[in-house]
Amino acid sequence: MARDIVSRTNEERDLALKWSNRVSLTPRILAVNIFALALLGGGFSYLDSYRSRIVDSRVEQASREVRLIAQALASATDKRRDLLVLSLARDMGTRIRLYGENGKMIADSRELGLRNVVLRDPDKDPWGQTAARFLDAVIDTVAGADRAPLYRERARDQGLDWPDVRTAQSTHGGAATVWRAPDRTPVITAAAPITDLGVVMTTSNARDITQTVRSERYRLSVVLAIVSLVSILLSLFLARTIVRPLRRLARAAVRVRLGRAREVVVPRLPERSDEIGMLARALSDMSQALRARIDATESFAADVTHELKNPLASLRSAVDGLASVKDPELQARLLAIVQDDVHRLDRLISDISEASRLDAQLSRATFEPVDIGQMIQALLDQREARGLPNGIRIVFDRRAEPLRVLGEGARLERVFDNLIENAISFSPENGLVTISASNERHVLVVRVADEGPGVPEEAYEAIFRRFHSVRPAAEAFGQHSGLGLAIARTIVEGHQGSISVEAREDRLSGARFVVRLPMAVRD
Q: In this predicted structure, what is the pLDDT of residue 141?
């Protein structure tokens, strides 16, 4: 187990998650959900592209409008030009300036009394506008939005200082530029040439674009705030339903490991039908099985100590007596006692060793098909070849069909040999031992019955306990360790079967042992 824990394979497998194993589940769940919300927050970047498309469309609109204005002014007389400039500026919501070829101003809608394009002074705006502009700056910085040049007024007769005017005059085509007002709203200028007159330039402050973007950003922020709040609450609820029971199970597992409490109650979480509930019940069953195994081990150790003390006390007494006894006949009797006690200890230690290793050996054993009918018949042939005492007879009733189970032949042979020997030892003179084997609904049932004194009903379970031995009165003391039936039950249960004792159906005296094993599935 220790080698598996520190193996290089496991270490390499854990490297991928080493960075996250240091963080509790709760912040990890929150981090995953907040990351998803951050992706949703990327919608602010989409608003930047949305604003760019609106600005581009406004630039195209301003370019078309300035060309139309240039055509209208080209056909107007000098007397009607100022009125036309004022009328067009009012109708289009823009400032119109007309420059001659040398850059000197010819006409300006503002000088004509129309102040429809006035840039706001950010220092005079309320705090709400200041906060909005600060938020715009932050989001533009995060989104990496392009920053337009700051709009600055030029001198009255320095029209060539405007890049649009220079471009329109030099290329005899239209030109447009997007500027940034002091309050961060876009300012769009466009210029177009007028034949034999100069260049006309329009200026418009597109505050509505900023207002539209801020309105959409506000709606997205409200949605994001609501979704974030719901997501965080759901994350905390999810973490609570996962992390808290896992912590309870971890604390219970630590108490089991420390072993400070005799009975550690691992929460079973019966109200949960999910994987955590399954884990809780599995850990609870595991802890109970572990406690049962520990109790059985402690009980077994106590029983072994008790069983070893009797022959050791007898052996010590006999050895102490040999040193002081001079009578050869008495010495011979003491030596016989020593020899019997040594044989008894040897048999007891061998049975204890096998009983202690049996569970582990069965868990590693490779099961193969075994014909129980042939096995029992072979055991009976060997027993009859050695001779049956007191005229005892054995009858084996089985069908001709194979009675195969999956198991380890040597272990199962010990079970049936033990049952047969017990039946013979408890049978009276000229008694009859009957053995039957049959297939009952895909379960092999073997019954071994004798005509002996039988087993009291209150001792049906006790006889399968370790070191519990009830032997015939004529049998010498110490011939059996009291582990035979306990070992038999361990072997049968290791093969997913059961062994029990019951009264005979014909109500005659005697005991009947019943072994049930699952039949092997036919190919």
A: 74
Half-sphere exposure of 425 (CA within 13 A, CB side): 16
Sign of CA dihedral 396, 397, 400, 403: negative
Tokens 């159906």, residue?
A: 505
Of 57-71, 351-365, 420-434, the poorest mean pLDDT is in: 351-365
Alpha-carbon span 321 to 340, nearest angstrom: 16
Q: Is 517 exposed, middle or buried (0-12, 13-18, 19+ CB in 10 A)?
A: buried
For residues 72 and 95, is the Cβ–Cβ distance under 8 A?
no
Q: Would you say 96 and 109 are in contact if contact means Cβ atoms under 8 Å apart? A: yes
Q: What is the pLDDT of residue 61?
A: 93
498 contacts 516 by C-beta, under 8 angstroms:
yes
- Of the segments 162-171, 306-315, 344-353, 495-504, which one has the largest average pLDDT value? 162-171
pTM over 0.70: no
Go through the domains of the chain in sequence order and give each one's CATH number.
41-218 (3.30.450.20), 266-364 (1.10.287.130), 367-518 (3.30.565.10)
* Contact yes or no for 499/492 (Cβ under 8 A): yes
- Asked if 113 and 175 touch (Cβ cutoff 8 Å), the reply is no
In 259-327, which ranges are continuous DSSP H helix? Answer: 275-324
